[in-house]
TrEMBL record:
The chain crosses the membrane at residues 12-29, 35-58, 78-103, 109-126, 133-151, 171-188, 208-233, 266-288, 300-326, 332-353, 365-383, 389-411. Keywords: Membrane, Transmembrane, Transmembrane helix. Coiled coil: none annotated. This is Acyl-CoA thioesterase FadM. InterPro entries: HotDog_dom_sf. Pfam families: 4HBT_2. It comes from Methylorubrum thiocyanatum. It comes from the Bacteria. The keyword Cell membrane does not apply.
């Protein structure tokens, strides 16, 4: 029992630090100095409790984080990616505007870029199970630096007594958005999903890991609240809206301090908090995007390397640009925090409901439109201020999740009908085709999406009993497949190709037998595909006895030098494009019919 607890608790540092982004780091300072200790608790408790509840729900017995993550990665991908974008933008903006610029002025871009590159390198090179060790060491270093900084600031007269409470209308209005945003926040953070999956894979307890992580996270926030108390209000940073903020109070106190080591301690404390968020972002985003692209059938992946599509670098560049723009526009941290309590809450609530068992009724477009309306209401109430506008904004954002919430609570009607899936029996229903009869041995060509080879067995194809020998059915399917390839890719040259097509699996279900001189048609079509494999379905029909058999084969592609598995080559996609199944995103708008250029020909 003790071993299991310790094994689970080793995940606490990386859980706490991955959630200790610019939002929690600098807002803890601001809210303590602006609203007092009651204000700090109103911010910190929902934040830590939301983290613990995420682990408690996802780690319930019989619930598999990995299976749930696999199911929701695609439908909620935009939610996860927007959250990651905002998390990194908040982190970069916060540390630039409220940590390094007060110390070094505006000549901090090079240092900030170096920090981001080093953190991303760690996230790229080290898997999560080892990052948790790195974060454990970083946590010890950061906490020691935090206490050194606290002791240094406390020896000088910067500090002021933080009141128990200093509440105003804006604080009362922010109470509900803080509660909603922080309780739902971990659900939209793919960093936490990745950790829950890895914790379960390791055999540790998700509940114990997140409970200890939440306690540790609360402790980190408390350190910043104590630093705020020791630093004092300083000179508030006034944003473009005319509202003062105390986010940079600790950095300002550090810049004024004459105590040796205080600046170094502050830099270590802030760098640890920033780097452990950015490396977590990089690893988790790549984990998500790799999973999505692996299952994707998009033809774009045949032209663009999947590693480039799944790279977090694009989101990182967008976040860096947004952070620079926010700095130039003199925004406050609040404007980057708002989406977590408005725009994204509808999708996050749907995600929670689906995890708890509700059927999926998530409409992302509707949720985001409602969320944008909620965001406008929030900003109106924040600037005025108007506590009612602030309080109602997250409730408006939750409207998009009402169908799933009411179903979960048993208040709604019947669940939304699921999309009917085609059964094997329906898929196997013979397709009536018209093939031009030719008295020659064989004719071939396309009839819609089917490639048809017509032939007449002879004595050469039969066994001693007079029936067609079983292996010849397989040979005929192979012949039809090669003619199919030749029709789709007439310029393919085996001597100069840089890839080979291999048969991964082959399956055939025998139904009836044919005899010599019984006209037979062998039909082949593309049944399905993913990034690496194409499945061909085949049917063999007799003009006399009907269906003789059916089956399928799976094709894979390897390079012609080292036989290394490849994604579906571009030339294959281009050649097969008119004949993908209609359900495929590759399907052409018009499939050549029997009278087209590729119609049946002798």
């Amino acid at each position: 029992m003790l071993y299991q607890f310790l094994r689970s608790a080793t995940w606490a540092p990386t859980i706490a630090l991955s959630w200790f982004w610019g939002l929690g780091f600098f807002y803890a300072i601001h809210v303590t100095l602006t609203y007092g200790w009651i204000g700090f608790l109103a911010f910190a408790l929902p934040n830590a409790i939301g983290l613990a509840l995420f682990g408690w729900i996802l780690g319930a017995p019989g619930r598999s984080p990995e299976k749930i993550a696999t199911t929701i990665q695609g439908p909620y991908a935009v939610l996860f990616l927007v959250c990651q974008f905002l998390a990194v933008a908040i982190t970069i903006f916060g540390f630039a505007a409220y940590a390094w610029m007060p110390l070094f002025g505006r000549d901090t871009v090079l240092g900030l870029v170096m920090l981001v590159l080093v953190a991303c390198s760690i996230g790229h090179a080290i898997p999560l199970r080892r990052i948790k060790i790195v974060h454990g060491v970083a946590l010890i270093l950061g906490v020691c630096a935090g206490f050194v900084l606290l002791a240094g600031l406390a020896t000088e007269s910067h500090g002021s007594d933080v009141p128990l409470s200093s509440l105003d209308e804006r604080f009362y209005g922010l109470a509900l958005p803080s509660l909603v945003g922080f309780l739902l926040g971990p659900w939209m953070d793919v960093q936490q999903w990745q950790r829950a999956v890895e914790i379960r894979r390791e055999g540790a307890s998700v509940r114990v890991a997140y409970a200890t992580g939440a306690i540790l996270f609360g402790g980190l926030l408390t350190i910043n609240a104590l630093l705020a108390s020791a630093a004092g209000l300083g000179e508030p940073v006034v944003s473009f809206d005319g509202l003062p903020g105390a986010y940079a109070a600790v950095a300002q106190a550090t810049a004024r301090s004459h105590v040796a080591g205080v600046t170094v301690a502050f830099l270590i404390w802030t760098v640890v908090a920033a780097a452990t968020t950015i490396d977590s972002f990089y690893g988790a985003t790549r984990w998500l995007m790799t999973a999505i692209t692996t299952r994707s059938n998009s033809p774009l992946l045949a032209f663009v390397p999947s590693s480039l599509v799944s790279s977090p670098i694009w989101i990182l560049l967008a976040a860096f640009t947004a952070a620079v723009a926010a700095t130039q526009l003199n925004l406050s941290l609040m404007y980057l925090m708002v989406p977590f309590a408005t725009i994204l809450v509808g999708g996050a609530a749907c995600l929670v409901c689906e995890t708890l068992g509700a059927s999926r009724r998530y409409d992302p477009v509707l949720s985001y439109m409602i969320g944008l309306a909620a965001c406008l209401v929030f900003l109106t109430g924040y600037i005025q201020p108007n506590w009612a506008y602030l309080a109602i904004a997250p409730l408006i954002g939750l409207v998009g999740a009402l169908p799933m919430v009411t179903e979960l609570l048993g208040w709604g009607g019947a669940p939304a009908a699921s999309v009917p899936q085609a059964t094997d029996e329906a898929a196997a229903k013979p397709v009536v085709i018209t093939v031009a009869r030719d008295e020659a041995i064989a004719s071939h060509g396309f009839d819609g999406q089917w490639f048809v080879l017509s032939l007449i067995p002879t004595y050469d194809d039969t066994n001693s009993v007079g029936n067609v020998y079983f292996a010849n059915y397989v040979r005929w399917v192979g012949k039809a497949r090669e003619l199919f390839f030749n029709t789709c890719m007439p310029d393919f040259d085996l001597k100069s190709t840089d890839f080979y097509v291999l048969t991964k699996t082959f399956q055939h279900d025998f139904r009836r037998e044919a005899v010599e001189f019984e006209p037979v048609s062998v039909r082949v079509r593309i049944a399905s595909h993913n990034r690496k494999f194409v499945t061909l379905a085949h049917e063999i029909h007799s003009e006399i006895n009907g269906l003789l058999g059916r089956g399928e084969q799976s094709l894979m592609f390897v390079d012609s030098v080292q036989y290394r598995p490849l994604d579906i080559p571009r030339s294959i996609i281009e050649g097969f494009l008119p004949y993908w199944p209609k359900s495929s995103p590759h399907a052409a708008s018009a499939v050549p019919g029997p009278l087209g250029a590729n119609s049946l020909s002798a």
